[in-house]
Amino acid sequence: MTTYRITLANQNDETYEVDHRRPLLESLRERGVDLPYGCKYGGCITCAAKLIEGTVNQQAQVALNNRQLANGYIILCVARPTSDCTLEIGVESHDTLYRNPFLDPLAPHELKADIATPKEEAP
Amino acid sequence: MSDNGEATCCGPGYASPADAMQAPREKILYTIAIYTGTGIQKPDYLCTIDADPESSTYSQVISRLEMPGIGDELHHMGWNACSSCHGDAGMERKYLIVPGVRSSNLHIVDCATDPRNPTLFKVIEGSEIKAKTNLSAPHTIHCLGSDIIISMLGDAQGNAPGGYLHLNKDFEIVGRWENSMGDIKFGYDFWYQPRHNVMVSSEWAAPNTFMPGFDLEEVGHLKYGRELHFWDFEKKEPKQTMYLGEDGLIPLEVRFHHDPDSSHGFVGAALSANIIHWWKDNADEWQWEKIIDVANEPHPEWPIPVPGVISVILLSMDDRFLYFCNWLHGDIRQYDISDPHNPKFTGQIWMGGLLEKAPEVNGVKVTGGPQMIQLSLDGKRLYVTTSLFSTWDNQFYPEIRTNGGCMLMINCDTENGGMEIDPDFVVDFGKEPNGPSRCHETRYPGGDCTSDIWL
Ligand code: FES
User: Fold this and answer.
1) Which of A67, A114, B236, B342 is most deeply packed, by most CB within 10 A?
2) Number of domains in chain A
3) How far apart are CA B240 and CA B434, in angstroms?
4) Residue from B40, B74, B208, B216 to probe the interface with A (highest A Cβ count within 10 Å)
5) How far is the CA of B38 from the centre of ligand 1 (A)?
6) Which residues of B touch A63 (CB under 8 A)?
């Protein structure tokens, strides 16, 4: 079994070895980490955490727009690690997850993947 | 009369809206409060609030029923039976059905055995609902006779349009209620008027669109609703769609007149901040018109004026007054709709909101704006709470995380119109034992102005 080391930066750098095939929410909760969640299928954002270092596969998520992805957010209920990772978890990691949509609009390339248009490169 | 004011000779509820208005005053309120999305790792819960001014615990939470797990996001709820069962002595208004939008769990809560301490009777797991019906994200609950139908806003993967879950009176899943969703793109609220063989349903968005929060740009990408659907109620299929367009962006709460003979009804278009009225004309054709248009308001820090965002509407039991909330502006309005084509603006109060007209009320900092409302059966007391939906709260009113929500009571003048915030009633959910929570929908044991339908 391939395992990766997950470090929780805002939990005194606690580390956990987790199975790469299983979603992080499941693995970490099983080990006693108290994490928020809602839908458990990648659609509601409640379980979002910030990936500080490392890589995950989170193809199944449909909750995050491209700006949130660019800010490093991952959806723990579907994200599986593809390397060792350092995370910030819980609402303390949500500083740039929510924004007032009228004051801070999204550019076309920052929308959710299904409606985003590619960013125009500067000539 | 039983304790909750309902006649004991027959089934639940009242023979008519006029009878309902004669019921004794509500003594307790059931209000849901959430921790989902707040950072507090505790279950959402159902509060029982003392609303009896003679009681020593008046205006306080007197009991709390925690759900079994975290992350439900309790939102709306409904009774197992209402006045639609009034003729059935075998039925009782005993259970509140309390769904979790995010978990899709349905909690069946016994409120009758000990009305001041409701208990959990049964849980229908979201996983069972998804497996049997391919539906998720429960919203509005109405009973019809001894059956219960629930609008479900998504399929099991959270995509629109979802459909309607049918439960029997023993809370077993019968299956899908509707025979067809037709061309309906989204679900949200619904109300039926059997004497006209009609159900009207409105549109929010797919759960995967609204649950993570509000991206305004998605409205332009047609990810949010702008249509109203008229159903053949007996055939259980949509018959006619009204395209409301820019006048009807995000049509949410749907209310028919309580008078079962009336064809008039109303919906609040949240983002357009309009009230839409519909009725059946002399040729038996359904018509609609915009009757109220709330102007966007300038804000010193906003590049564009702030829309009202009408998050809820409600009709008094005698169908004379329409109430609605502008969640972003921070006001509740009262209109006399005796002539439904020509509403008269009769009352207004301010509490919270982004326009800062009343940041503090009754000694409590109001975070959020007026959101869910519930009116007493006699029309004189309107209870209001401030949280909309955890992710949307976090976007528009981030301080709600530390301040929590609150509940206020508005005294309504049913003679001349007019509203005033009651100075002696306030429930501060910022002071809850497990930390600041957010309060949402309210119901009364004896029925209320958004639950009972007459056949
Ligand atoms: S729990 Fe809903 S997105 Fe993870």
Assistant:
1) A67
2) 1
3) 48
4) B208
5) 14
6) 208, 211-212
- Is the pLDDT at A1 greater than 90, yes or no? no
- The CATH number assigned to the domain holding B319 equals 2.130.10.10
- A32 exposed, middle or buried (CB, 10 Å; 0-12, 13-18, 19+)? exposed
Query: Chain A contact for B358, CB < 8 A?
Result: no
Domain span holding position B256: 17-443
- For B374, half-sphere exposure in the C-beta direction (CA atoms, 13 angstrom radius) is 25
Rounded CA separation B246/B114 (Å): 48
Mutation target vs B (from A11, A34, A46; most B CBs, 10 A cutoff): A46
Residue B350 resides in a domain:
yes
pTM metric for this prediction: 0.96
Question: Per the domain annotation, does A123 fall within a domain?
Answer: no
- In degrees, rounded to 5, the angle at the alpha carbon of residue B153 between the alpha carbons of residues B213 and A103 is 20
What residue of A is the nearest CA neighbor of B158?
A43
Q: Which residues contact A14 (CB under 8 A, 6 or more apart)?
A: A7, A8, A33
The answer to whether residue B424 sits within a structural domain is yes
Q: For B9, phi and psi rounded to 5 degrees?
A: -70, -30
Interface pTM, i.e. ipTM: 0.96
Q: Check pLDDT > 50 for residue B435.
A: yes
Position B9 in a domain: no
Any idea what the CATH number is for the domain that residue A92 is in? 3.10.20.30
